[in-house]
Structures are given as C-alpha cells and as structure tokens.
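User: For my dataset I need records formatted as: sequence, then structure tokens, nothing else. Please produce one.
Assistant:
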Amino acid sequence: MCGYYRHLIPDYATKVHILNILSNSRTFTWTSEHQEKFQELQITFFTKPFIVQTDWTKQFFLNTDGSHIAIAGILIQKQDDGELQLISYYSRTLTATESRYPENKIELLPIHNSVKYFREFLYGRKFTILSDHMNFKYHTNLQNPANIVARWLMDLSEYDFQHVKGKNNLLADYIS
C-alpha cells in the first residue's frame, strides 16, 4: 500500500531500501534496523503530507539529486507569497549497474528520470530544474556523448526548461 502512495512520502526509496533487500531472499532475519525503518515508514505514511494541490497557472520547479544508493526529484511550485510548496515526490533506489555509474551520470540520471516521472505536469510547460549537477551543460555540449547519455539528452530535448545550479539543494539531497 505504501508503494502506491510513494509520491507523497519523502525519502521513500531510502526508507524501503533495507526492506526491499529482504524481499530478494527466501529466508530473512528481521532485525532491529528493519523494525526501525518499518516504523519510520509507518509514521511517515500516517502523518499528514505537506503537499498542496497543483495550480496549473503557476510555474513548476523540479529539484533533483542523486547518490550511489538512490535518486530523487521533488516537484515544487512557488506560491503567491513566494513560498515554495511541494506538489509531489519521486525517488527510487539504483540498480546494481546504476550504482557503479560515475558521479556525472549519477547526477544526470535523476534529472532524466524525474522529468519522465512528472511528465504529465511538465510536458508542454516551461519549468526550471534545480540541481547541484554542474556537468549538465557539459553533457549537452558534448560532440559524441555515450549512448545512454545521448538517449537521456534526446528524451530531455522534448521539454522546455531552464537549468539552474542549486547551491543549497537541501530538499533533494535529503530525499536521495
């Protein structure tokens, strides 16, 4: 049930990572660490989310970040009073292959995956990507990028966005 509402739970991928590992084996030992993560997930799930209803007249901001464990994106809108309000969360753990990506790919991956995840919000709209990824411009200016990077850039070319370096990318750092 929590998986269905993962877009409302910050840091979902990290919270369930240790629990997902249990599902990969036939027998497992439930430890205090598993119990702690399970209770943390329960508390988060039954706490009122800090999410507001989407206002389609306001600009969207997509805050992204990645680590060698998980990637994350937060869809945000600026309210009339200037306050940033959360619309939805996205996070997932990395596959074994993805966890071995170099840092520049790990920072581009959440941009690509978050934009795809929030497609219904972002497609056809101008939005801003907030990311601490400094190599984004580097990737877009490469003559012959790696195949996977070329595919990601091709996917992103369908969107109208501005990339802004997020020096204080605390929200996305927290959920990845």
